[in-house]
Specification:
heterodimer; A: about 220 residues; mainly alpha; 9 helices; about 75% helix; about 0% strand; B: about 100 residues; 3 helices; elongated
């Protein structure tokens, strides 16, 4: 039991240091590395909580795959050294204040809670608790819909990432760039008013069309 | 078990402070990861407390959600970079690129 406590405090210190490093380091690349350390320390804590499968998934999926994605994007975008803190003075002061208030609130809610189980060492668990077998049985029997929804969500995210970050190679020569430009910076204002003016002229200034075209021009500008 | 919950509260608040004060969207995403992981830690602590495996399944689903969020967020950042927009959350105050 004593060794468990020592391990908890070592891992907790590592997790806290990693979290502070993520927030306080200026270079985003070092922030990512601090988050990797934080995740590894958290995996140790998960093991202490008898969650073996989740700890393994944390190391393999999170600290492995997701963080590699982050490193790629940081090196691609270029880890720019930004000045710490927002430019607006008010937000700079209010942000940490809000965080401290949140911490006080959560601490009061957890420590002073009436729930007796929070203070205990936890109930006795079976031998296979947290093993891949137990998790798999739960996923397949009790949480099948959540499992399927998660897989569908992953598919959606993959498609969305391709759409968002795709280079659109085939369209660039064929005027795809122009479409993008139109989508980004709509320059339809003067054109639309020109068109409505032309319509006005074309219809010979009929009284019925005038307010409609004026309204259309006003909407698009 | 109280210690686990208190630790998760600390990590969550550090992440919240980061989201509120940092300007780089990449670092904001990292801080969101911190907050999600704090939630995971609390879920696992309560699963241990109850001796019920459902909390661990919840934690796994949270990890899936976090992966999706990372993919979308990083895709947005790459798109911003490709459109020569500044990688700065304060400059991105409108949805129109």
């Amino acid at each position: 039991m004593l060794s468990e406590q020592i391990l908890f405090f070592v891992a907790a210190a590592g997790a806290l240091a990693g979290a502070v490093g993520v927030v306080a380091l200026r270079n985003p690349f070092f922030s990512v590395l601090a988050l990797v350390g934080h995740l590894l320390a958290l995996a140790v804590l998960f093991l202490l909580l008898r969650a073996e499968f989740v700890a393994a998934a944390q190391v393999v999926v999170y600290a492995g795959a997701v963080m590699v994605l982050y490193v790629f994007v940081v090196t691609y975008v270029g880890g720019s050294e930004e000045p710490l803190g927002p430019s607006l003075g008010a937000i700079r002061a209010v942000g940490p204040l809000f965080a401290v208030a949140l911490l006080a609130e959560i601490a009061i809610a957890t420590v002073a809670t009436g729930l007796k189980a929070v203070g205990s060492r936890g109930s006795e668990v079976a031998a296979g608790f947290g093993s891949p077998q137990a998790i798999g049985a739960l996923l397949m029997e009790k949480f099948l819909i959540a499992f399927e929804a998660a897989s569908f969500l992953l598919l959606l995210a993959a498609v969305a990432a391709v759409v968002l970050a795709g280079r659109r190679r085939g369209l660039e020569e064929a005027g795809g760039e122009r479409v993008l430009q139109l989508g980004r910076r709509p320059e339809t204002g003067p054109q639309a008013t020109d068109r409505s003016a032309g319509e006005q002229g074309g219809y010979g200034g009929r009284a019925i069309d005038k307010p409609a075209s004026a309204a259309r021009g006003g909407q698009s500008t | 078990m109280t210690w686990f919950v208190v630790l998760s509260a600390f990590i969550f608040c550090i992440g919240a402070a980061g989201v509120l004060t940092r300007r780089n969207p990449l670092v904001i995403l990292l801080c969101l990861e911190l907050m999600l992981n704090a939630g995971n830690l609390a879920l696992l602590a309560f699963a241990r407390g109850h001796g019920d495996g459902a909390g661990q399944v919840f934690a796994l689903v949270v990890m899936v959600i976090a992966a999706c969020e990372v993919v979308i967020g990083l895709g947005l950042i790459v798109a911003m970079y490709r459109h020569k927009l500044p990688i700065d959350a304060d400059e991105m105050s409108e949805l129109r690129g």
